[in-house]
Fold Exocyst complex component.
Amino acid sequence: MEAKPKRRIVTENGDTGEDLVLATLIGNGDDVGPLVRHAFEMGRPEPLVHQLKNVARKKETEIEDLCKTHYEEFIVAVDELRGVLVDAEELKSDLATDNFRLQEVGSALLVKLEELLESYAVKKNVTEAIKMSKICVQALELCVKCNGYVSEGQFYHALKTMDVIERNYLKIIPLKVLRLAIERRIPVIKSHIEKKVCSQFTEWLAHIRSSSKSIGQTAIGLIASARQREEEMLERQRKAEEQNTGGLGELAYTLDVEDSEQDSVLKFDLTPLYRAYHIHTILGVPERFRDYYYSNRQLQLDSDLEISYGQPFVESYQTFLAQIAGYFIVEDRVIRTAGDFLLADQVETMWETAIAKIVLVLENQFARMDSPTHLLLVKDYVTLLGATLRQYGYEVGPVLDALDKSRDKYHELLLEECRKQIVTAISEDSYQQMVIRKEADYENNVLSFNLQTSEIMPAFTYIAPFSSMVPDVCRIIRSYIKGSVDYLSYGVNTNFFSVLRKYLDKILIDVLNEVILETINNNSIGVAQAMQIAANISFLEKACDYFLRHAAQLCGIPSRSVEKPQASLAAKVVLKTSRDEAYHALLNVVNTKLDEFMKLPENINWITEEMPQSPHEYMNEVVIYLETVMSTAQQILPTDALYKVGVGAIEHISNSIVSTFLSDSIKRFNANAVSAINHDLRVIENFADERYHSTGLDEVYKEGSFRSYLVEVRQLINLLSSSQPENFMNPVIRERNYNTLDYKKVATICDKFKDSPDGIFGSLANRNTKLTAKKKSMDMLKKRLKEFN
């Protein structure tokens, strides 16, 4: 604060501005080097030196002023400092005196201290000796305890005790002899323990292998029980649906009553394994024990996978598969409960080995089997094995694939077995309508397969329109469906309805239809047999819908999905074709029999001179036969088949008569022969009309009566009986009266028509006789037909 007035004084005393600037720089502590450098570079250092001197003088003046101002205070401080020196000298003297006194007193105490330190040294040595003795005693006590554990077989406690000795005592045992003895015995004891543990574990390995079959059988039995409960529930559900009882709501929770508790049921002791692994871990050799376990279990698995050829596979497959199931259930429990003892990759490797062997064994054994029942038994147990091991996380796809590959083999065996049964059922059939006397028999043979023709329960005794072959075959097909479902279920494909449908068509087409066709084509078949076979085929065709619904129910497919017309079986169309073949065979038999009765060239005098007044006797036999055929057909065959039989027989009679006129065996005939055939034809026409109306066919086929199929022969007889046969060439008359007659046929027949008896001199006797108008007309027709042709 006093510097500013001084600077003002300097300025006021005539200081130049340059002196003031230099003083300011020096006062602020700034670097004056640049000024000095500049002054010397300019060659004028004198002004700068002068200025510096002025500044120095100013500073000296300031210092003098400052000293003058604080002089008194400085003097006082010097006086005080001198007083402090005097006090310090006094204190020094006091300290010397006190030090002398202290040394005199401490000499005695120093002697006591040395004695105390010597006592402390003795005490320390004694304490060390006691401590060392305690260590030795404790170590020996632990050794004794360890020996006791080893003797009692408590190896874990023995190892823990040795671990305590090694970790806490071995390095601090003061007695070298004792320490060396303990060090030598510890490895010996550990080796002994390891051998004993391995021995016990080996016994456990043998025990667990012998128990694997029981473990596997128990586990598979639990799965089988659960599957059986499920199948029973589904069966009750199906019956409820069939009876429309609405019982589904009560059945939906049946399976939830009991839970599968396999872990609690499958009790087997893994304690020896845990103990052995733990002991080897303590011994520091867990890897060696893991390798020992894995190699021994691998050997056991290889042995288990070897099948016995001393007995048939069908008798040993359950033992074989149960042993494998038990083996891998044990491995699953080990991997889940033993920590990192067993690696998942190791178990996976063993499983891949096992599943490859199982697949190979199954393929070989299936190829040798010749019974579908045996194949199905093995398949069922294999699927139970797969379901059991799938619960434990094992991949069983290859096993199910092997079963799927044997699917065709099984169905071939099943098909062949059913073929024999169907052949037996058809060959032993009586071809007589089945007589049912009890309601239970009606339910078993008719309602069970939806073969009823009416929803109303009939009165008993009831005569079914089919023979006993139909329900017998239906039962065989139903058993085939059940056998097929049993094999296809629980396999690779959960939705196997399409596969089942293919096999169902196969048995219906390749077996049932072929056997029926063979029976139809048998020349020894009679009318009644052919008629009954045709009726049976109609009902088998109807049963196809039942077979499809039954298959859908067993597969869990809604019935409505198979009730659509486009969803029907292909076999239904094939059976319909076979039914037509049966109708054709029936007609062939009927027609053959009619031909036997109607031996027209033999039964008719084609050039008789007498005018007949009644039909020929053979016609009575024909009518009786037709009456029998139509009556039987009306009882057995459906309406359309009845109509076909009637039409076929009537049409055959018509064709037979026309064919006889055209036959080369008939060289000529006269009007009397035509009149006789006309009488026969009227009998057939009357029969046709009567049967057409009495059977009720007139209400169904209004435009196609039986008589309409006699129109050709009727028009031919009318033409031959006409007084003006030449009208045949009149288009209008021909279209109205003779539209079914063929020109060539008429020409051939008319050439044979001779209206005079064939006497020896017949032609000469009549040469000059006036031709009748009818003969002239017939001759004109013959002439015009020749011209037309």
